[in-house]
Fold this sequence. Notes:
By secondary structure, this protein is α+β, with helices and mostly antiparallel strands. It folds into 4 domains: 12-122, Glutaredoxin; 155-306, Alpha-Beta Plaits; 312-444, Alpha-Beta Plaits; 448-578, Alpha-Beta Plaits (2-Layer Sandwich). It is built from 25 helices and 21 strands. The strands form 5 sheets. A 7-stranded mixed beta sheet has the order 1-2-4-3-5-6-7. Mean pLDDT is 82; it is low at 1-8, 138-152, 232-267, 582-590 and 596-602.
Amino acid sequence: MASKKREIQLQTVVNSQSLWDEMLQNKGLTVIDVYQAWCGPCKAMQPLFRKLKNELNEDELLHFVVAEADNIVTLQSFRDKCEPVFLFSVNGKIIAKIIGANAPLVNQKIINLIDEERKIEAGEMVRPQYHEITFVDSDAEDGEESPYESAEQLYSIAIIKPDAVIARKSLEIKKKILEAGFVIEIEDKRVLTEQQVRDFYSRRADQPDFEDFVLFMTNGLSHILVISQGNEEQPAWEETEPNPETETKVYEDHHHEVAPPTLRKEKRYSLQEYLERQHISQLCDIEESIANVNKFIDMFFPDFKSMKNLKLEKILALLRPDLFQEKKENVLGIIHDEGFKILMQRPIVLSEEEAQTLCKEYENEDYFENLIKKMTSGPSLALVLLRDNCLQHWKELIGPSSVEKAKISLPESLCAQFAVEGLPINQLYGSDSLETAEKEIQYFFPPQQTLALIKPHVTQEQREEILKYIKEAGFEITQMKEMLLNEEAADKIYSKIKTKDFYKDVLEVLSEGLSLVMILTKWNAVSDWRRLMGPVDPDEAKLLSPDSIRAQFGTSVLKNAVHGSSNIHEAMETINQMFEVLVPENPEGNKNFEKIMHVRSH
């Protein structure tokens, strides 16, 4: 009877609203083939469904349905459409939709969702809060451009493991991911906590070497990435010959269309599959299950949604000498009030070459010679600014390059407010593009490296706090390794004091356990790290620098929590010995400004 739900082979027929409502009571996952009466269900996918039904063997959790859109009010938006549509219902909620007979995509979706249902039933995970699909007229959508549609973007989590980070494989892995058309939405370098490792790798918990693995993952720097699929029309798609069992062309079973004789289907690999094909999957671990990914995004990046919507940018800004000398505090106050964060700042006296490059746009003006004299007469203030859409906001704030134009069209701009008599140009400078900004920041704030050490007596909780201090101070942890510092290794770090009588006491403290040895990178890294550490004696640090690391975590002169290089040359030598990496001999970088910057054009 047409009014009753009946079984035809492996799929249940639903052809009325009441049967649709009844079907939504199914426990677990229901895969729904939405069809029109005039063309029928998609027979091309039935071999795949039968194969999954047999292999997964989950009669209580996995159901297959064919639903006739013509007679079901809920599915009215799918009427008069010829393209196959597959809906995925979990416990009565439609959570995903795939357009087209894309067998690999449907196969992976079913396997992932059944895996989640098994874990939920076994008590290994809580049921995620799925977003329900809203049905709209597909003619009004851009869905034809994408074979996969759901209420939210699909993400994967990738963790590049400590040994790969030490081997400097992170850039190579990220490059391959981007070349494949994936998008890195957000990333961070950090040492994972024990709980984070146990949560992310819970599926490995029953392996005999799991405790050793936890120790390995918590004793080095990992690189965490949130990755999205990006544009479907990317190089990760590869042409493949149709598989008769799982990828039979939809045209063969929809008699209203004629199949082009040379049609080939395209397939896109999942992130895990792609990394395996690139032979780099052993360097990083991937999580692609929807429920787990959402949980781990919250764990690693609790502000992910707000951070993703922000377009944080860094630019270089400059206060020219007259403005710096006379109105510095006024300008810095406005910068702060406008929501900019000053990441770095330094006074700098420009050379004639640097001034000419920064003022290139004025070189044909009568006042150019006088301008260069002014620019080289005293210190300018260089700033690195950060905020959402920083480049555009800074341009709008400072106004045009000409004082005359600013006073006429933008009298509220900083150009008009802080005009200097005798110079008809804007007294504030800003990068003209993000590409230029990166080069300018590298030039005026050349990155420097220093060696840092967290001593054995520091507890795991204290170590995590110290690493947080380091990150908040703007350092990048470029390399990190945990090791027992024997006398040979300690001599490389403490070369200046190894002949002192008290050195044997230092060795005794270092022999008590594992130390964390790091390369920290930042402009002015050596002095900034020493400032963050505080005085050698923790008691003195508590008086003179109460917010320093030694004041917070040191207990004695020997057990003062941290150590660092005294100067750039010591840092270079120690880093080369401890990490066997080459540190540039010139800490100030390339001083040929014209060569590292493109000429500004307006």
